[in-house]
Amino acid sequence: MARLPYLNKEDLPEEHQRLLERPANLFRALVNSPDAFRNFSRLGGWIRNGSTLDPRLREMAILQVGYLTRNAYEYTHHIKIGHDFGVSNEDVRAIARETAGETTDLADLDRAVLRLAREMTTHMEGSAEAFEAVHDELGDEHMVDVIMVIAFYNLVVRVLFTLQVDLEPEYEHYLEEFPLPPAGVAG
Fold first, then answer.
1. Which of 78, 105, 68 lies closest to 181, judged by CA?
2. N or C: at which end does the chain have fewer Cβ atoms within 10 angstroms?
3. Segments forming the whole domain that contains residue 105
């Protein structure tokens, strides 16, 4: 159960009601501080709509963070979003296998980005080897972008966990098809 109330549009002064055009539980919790939510949304909006990083690659990195941290909210929401940007069901399953150290048919760049996401999530930074593998393919601009994506979504999972944001029922079916690892397995 969430630690803060989920607000609805009608709970907000008129000048803040636009903030809940998409009434996801995360947003309904964050809008308890409208200015914090605006700034959170500004960076999230740039990640989704401003960065020229390949959106499929972005979603793969986000899914890796969600899977590794076992955050059902982030993971399931981004399975749905990822499908819109070319992430296949097999890609989602490959993330689980890559996390377990198994070999997959993912492209080298996909595997390198997933490794960087795992390292940044578990060790707070990517190794020189992981960094170079991604940088060699993406260059400077997109290297910064992918690091920002991974770092931002590590922030998101920490917010989700600490506020104990509930998963909306319409996302629960993703956990049946793409289960999270048992505690202590993924990292």
1. 68
2. N
3. 51-177
CATH number, domain containing residue 124:
1.20.1290.10
pTM of the model: 0.96
In this structure, are residues 66 and 153 in contact, taking their beta carbons and an 8 Å threshold?
A: yes
Query: Is 82 domain-assigned?
Result: yes
User: Are the CB atoms for 112 and 137 separated by under 8 Å?
Assistant: yes
Domain count, the chain: 1
C-alpha span between 43 and 75 (Å, rounded) = 19
Q: Is 43 a member of any domain?
A: no
Q: 106 pLDDT band (50/70/90 cuts)?
A: very high
Model confidence pLDDT, tens digit, residues 137-148: 999 999 999 999
Considering the domain boundaries, does residue 115 fall inside one? yes
Is residue 184 pLDDT above 70, yes or no?
A: no
Residue 55, in any domain of the structure: yes
Residue-level length of the chain? 187
- Structure-block tokens of residue 100: 């377990």
